[in-house]
Amino acid sequence: MMKLTKTGQKILVASLLAAACTTSFASNMTTTNTQPEASGQTAQTSQSSQSNFLIPSQNFYLGVLGGALFESGVSMAQAGIEGGFEINQHIAIGGELISTGYGFIGMGNAYAKFMLPINSRVRLYAKAGASYDTLMYGLGGIGGTSAMFGGGADFAVQKHVTIGLDYERYQRSGFGVNSVTLDAAYHFGA
Fold first, then answer.
1. pTM of this prediction?
2. Cα–Cα distance between 31 and 76 in angstroms, integer?
3. Pairwise CA distance, residues 126 & 182, whole Å
4. What are the structural domain ranges in the chain?
């Protein structure tokens, strides 16, 4: 059985709580407006979406993530932070800092993210980039660069908050590791 450090446990719990709390706001996002009709009567309309993805483009975002790394029957929990900039509704650049807390495997990822809004709340994405990872033992360690690619989906629960599910593959020559994470992010901007 794998054990997380106290810090790793706190980050994982915080990311899962943030994701759970933000979903509770989703049911309160519909607003009702009254508008006069041509006949003079008042009609109620419900507005819960915009024509584009709910999160405005051209914004910075910060978030937390938690999940698992796995390969060949071996898995370990991971937790971290993420951030980036959405250039428009289809392209973002970003990065992640991730730790397993187990023998200290740390990763720094930089990526480009290509997004496809499905409706005002859901978007799918693919991402590709590079990862530098370090495995520490005592005072020494080994590290290297891997290609990173993957995809996932974001769900907008509020105008500035998304939760997402993400799959990533880290690949070096002859070796690769898979990652599945749940994340919650806050998007700064309009």
1. 0.68
2. 43
3. 15
4. 53-187
Q: Average pLDDT of each block of 10 consecutive residues along the chain (190 residues)? A: 46 45 37 48 44 74 93 86 94 92 77 95 96 68 84 94 95 85 90
- What is the identity of the amino acid at 46? S
Q: Report how far residue 102's alpha carbon sits from residue 75's, in angstroms, rounded to the nearest whole number.
A: 11
Distance of CA 28 to the CA centre of its chain: 22
Question: For residues 157-173, b (16+ Cβ closer than 10 Å) or e, as one string?
Answer: beebbbbbebebebeee
* CA nearest to 154, candidates 189, 190, 127, 131: 127
- pLDDT score of 106: 80
Pull the structure tokens for residue 64.
């937390």
pLDDT of residue 19: 41
Burial pattern 125-142, b for ≥16 Cβ within 10 A else e, equals bebebebebeeeeeeeee
Q: How much is the pLDDT for 157?
A: 94
Using DSSP, state whether 100 is helix, strand or coil: coil
CATH number for the segment(s) 53-187: 2.40.160.20
* Separation of CA 159 from chain center: 15
**Beta strand segments in the chain, E:** 31-36, 42-47, 59-71, 74-86, 91-99, 105-117, 122-137, 140-158, 161-172, 175-187
Quote the tokens at residue 163: 């939760």
